[in-house]
């Protein structure tokens, strides 16, 4: 089994001169018409995106919600999709799971044993014990939500505690101290660049998964300058700006060009 640890990701990033994580968020309301006539529109859509971006991307992040919404057909397409992600790329299931006891254990079994993804996004607010079933998989990544890119992050994540810390800072402090800390990445939204320097002081060695570039308005250069560390330490997720490009040529040509544009900007830092 290929172990995709920090050293492996660092090597891939430097080889490809890219921090790119392509978000696979297939939406029936946005898919080009020619996919809608098939029996497996999500699978075919994602397959074409992977075909033209795999040499540029370090990772793929599958948004599980879009597949769940289709019911049995969605789960079937999801399980086929994970098998066509290139083995050298990190595969993240964006599921935002975590629960107590056997529930969390079953979530972990599904994503890590059945689907065999490399990483799962997790919410931390039920406590460290709710994530332990995921952390028991020593060659897998637990991607913990810290400071998310949505405006509602201000409702809780940016609340100041009695200690003077912000809530998301307490989450970071807690998880950097646990014994399985080397298996953890943190989600930090590109829409909060002003916090990246402080975040890097709390977790200088961890990988950060950064959503919010592109359609949400995050600045690529600010993120790389403030978020990069000694082992590169960034996976920058881009979804809509790549998978739903402005159509100029063919769909695949336009997806490739959109991804290439992001990677060209990233490559300036290598």
Number of domains: 1
For the residues shown, what is the average pLDDT?
96
Strand order of the largest sheet: 1-2-3-4-5-6-7-8
Strand content: 15-25%
Counted by DSSP, the helix tally is: 13
- The N- and C-terminal alpha carbons lie at a distance of 29 Å
Global shape:
globular
Task: Estimate percent helicity.
Answer: 40-55%
Low-confidence stretches: none
Order of helices and strands: HEHHEHHEHEHEHHEHEHEHH
The name CATH uses for the topology is TIM Barrel
Q: What class would the helix/strand composition place it in?
A: alpha/beta
Considering the chains and any ligands shown, give keywords for the structure.
13 helices; 270 residues; single chain; 8 strands; TIM Barrel
Q: What report would you give on this structure?
A:
This protein has 270 residues and is an alpha/beta fold. The protein has one domain: TIM Barrel. It has 13 helices and eight strands. The protein has helices spanning 6-16, 33-36, 41-53, 64-68, 72-81, 101-114, 132-135, 153-156, 167-176, 196-202, 220-227, 240-243, 251-267, and strands at residues 20-24, 59-63, 90-97, 119-122, 141-147, 184-188, 208-210, 234-238. An eight-stranded parallel barrel has the order 1-2-3-4-5-6-7-8, surrounded by five helices. Helix 10 links the parallel strand 6 (184-188) and strand 7 (208-210). The chain is globular.
Brief overview, please?
41% of the residues lie in helices and 16% in strands. The longest helix has 17 residues.
